[in-house]
Write a structure and sequence with these properties.
The strands form five sheets. Strands 1, 4, 5, 6, 7, 8, 11, 12 and 15 form a nine-stranded mixed sheet that branches. A two-stranded antiparallel ribbon has the order 2-3. The chain has one domain (17-470): Alkaline Phosphatase, subunit A. By secondary structure, it is α/β, with parallel strands linked by helices. It is globular, with a radius of gyration of 23 Å. Strand 13 (415-416) and strand 14 (423-425) form a beta hairpin. The protein contains 14 helices and 17 strands.
Amino acid sequence: MAALGSMLSDDGLLQQTAASDELVNPLAPKAPHFEGKAKACIFIFMAGAPSHLDLFDEKPILKERHGEPLPDSMLEKVRFAFIKKENALLQGSPYKFSQYGEGGMNLSELLPNLGSVADDLLLVRSLHTEQFNHHPGQLMMQCGRGTFGLPTMGSWMTYGLGSETQNLPGYVVLNSGRGSSGGATLWQSGFLPSTHAGVLFRNQGEPVLNLANPEGIPMSLQREGLNAIKDINANRYQEINDPEIAARIASYELAFRMQSAAPELIDLSKESKQTLDAYGVDRDEPKDLGGRGKQGDTYRSFAKNCLLARRMVERGVRFVNIIYASWDHHSNIPKELPYNAGCVDQPIAALISDLKQRGMLDSTMVVWGSEFGRTPLGENRNGKREVGTGRDHHPYSFSMLMSGGGLKGGYTYGETDEIGWHATENRVHVNDLHATMLHQFGLDHLKLTHRFQGRDYRLTDVGGKVIPEWIN
């Protein structure tokens, strides 16, 4: 019976509740507040803020009014990052939109592959936030508030549910493009134990830097050294019960197990050619496009990250954050937006189709989103009264895509006004998004708290409500 219990625990099928188990594995699976449909999340973060007006939210009237100024009354109390109010002009989208799927979801011509899986997508067009600069906005989306020192979504997920793998981190981060302005603060654990922080993986070479043993150090010798360090740390833990000591022990043990698990994870040689082609792992870079989103072989890197995300959730990873930057198109939208959209469209559609084909989409939530949207006004930081080729930061309305995890597919939620300025119908705050995501994992956002400096903190701060219309 003891052996059976150990095996079930290793496979994540037996909940560990004893206090001593936290010392052995702080990421041991935990029971949710109630039965949830989702077990894993792949959050694809488009750092820099894509233009909702060119991708998700068609505005014919904005196109008709292209080149017109806005009334001063609309601009009086508005803050911009760069736009000069006195010379700003409306800018319509040059891209055509089409209806996809049985629900007739309206998407830009730049996203044809996502259109092909429209019946599995929830399109939310009415998000809004208080933050209008990148780093605070990215922290808001990842942490629930636009301030430093808070746990991110992935940290809260593993804190509330643990992880179903002992050979890989419960929370993994994959990067493509040139890197987000938020950097490592977007996968921090904040005041939670450091075992809940995201672990940055590379998609080629050594998955985690310094993971392999130095030349000449056998595994047996490393094991003996780890056992000695573990005994010393365990004794200290018994004296002061500092959770960071448990996190330290767990990180050493996890690194030891990852030495065999991580290289196997990023080895795609056993994936079929059909799968590799579907994701676009060997795609070439477009020759006539580029800009802010390009850094090396970005198309191949992002495609490989999407495939790795599927492989990770198959192996029990709880939360995968794929970060792709940058979508900060203050200028040159005609060349830079098609590049970025082309980079992500095929791999994300393939990821959703792959998860569905494998019977994993119902238990895996896929989210496509960013920190805010882009203005219906053209960028004019030089002060000239002319239509620009870019758009400024826009917190008053933006769009996101979601799929799987018990959410409705083929459904569009919320609306913006006729020029895409304000979210007007079924407005969704970032904290509402987080509350609904947690709900799908069986977590009550009001109960998932951690006491720090005399206050009970939560991902949704002092707001947030679950949106039942999103749920199947």
